């Protein structure tokens, strides 16, 4: 897709590229600002679905009855312009049932807006930690569907899209849920296109505390493996219903891997299950999920699986049952049996040799985390970082590195004020 020009909010046009989102639409198009202003009732506060550092997302309804979500950038600067261009570019490239596609956009002289299909069940975050957390709408089957669907979307980005794409901000608020609770990975503002033959790049750190891979948070080294790490955290979050970072009595903060590691090491796998599930889960599914999570959150990126291999683990071992085999110790890539022993299932009678590394952020960065939303973007302001400690079981960030955490309410349209949500629900009927 070509560069975004400033004439897009003028006369309405129809895009020549196929729309890449929901199957009921065959094309994206250019919207006029007037059209989106009317659809959102003047960007009415009662229509607001979420708000973040980039701006706000609004619910809207077009004249032909289509429900849409409109992301309206609040600032017109080079950073916002770049993220807008990147997201529109990537959304115009991808086509997969588990990726939120482009419905259209508007780029006027002083306005930048992106239009998506509206997802009636909002985001995964809203069900785990937000508006719907007490309603327990996510049973075990829905969680498994979300896990597998999200993994398939990421596998497409890493292995099938040309060029390959690194998302860089995999988290619960960026997994949206349609009317059937099928997942769509969203928000490609931080995404990177990876040229052929390039295994990794060094870039400024952008992402969300709690999901950041160690090598990316410390050195800005980004690769597909960073997404794999974030997905591993998301797996633990979906299984347990816990936040990636939680506050303990006394103000101490703990990562989800610090909480999960002793339970996994002692074989108390069922203790990881979200109590809201009332012990209704499949034990084999749980073993596979924890196996995938344990491998995905390893501190060494070279020892993490690819997303294709993660899917193989989750499906029970598509390649001859390598990953799905209970007690299996063989790597699909050959060799490295020692690593596989460290994350093997154990037997079905309850013993477990499954191991998980406990990742710990430095105190300075943890202190900057906004625990209320647990959705703060992390951005390195000047490219300088200082490592306090690095080991196989933990890493620390802080010292002289200037890492800023942007505190935000919500980056897509997941978790929002209940009263506001009720008014919007009434408006939409």
From TrEMBL:
Family matches, as PANTHER family: OS01G0750732 PROTEIN (PTHR47989), PROTEIN KINASE DOMAIN-CONTAINING PROTEIN (PTHR47989:SF20)
Pfam annotation, one family: PK_Tyr_Ser-Thr
UniProt keyword terms in alphabetical order: ATP-binding, Kinase, Nucleotide-binding, Serine/threonine-protein kinase, Transferase
Molecular-function GO term, any one: protein serine/threonine kinase activity
Family assignment from sequence similarity: Belongs to the protein kinase superfamily.
Entry protein name: Protein kinase domain-containing protein
Bias kind Acidic residues: ranges: 367-385
Organism: Dendrobium nobile (Orchid)
Keyword Iron: no
Sites where the protein binds ATP: 72
Ranges in a coiled coil: none
Region (Disordered): 367-403
Signal sequence, renumbered to the chain: none
Domain of life: Eukaryota
Domain Protein kinase: 43-322
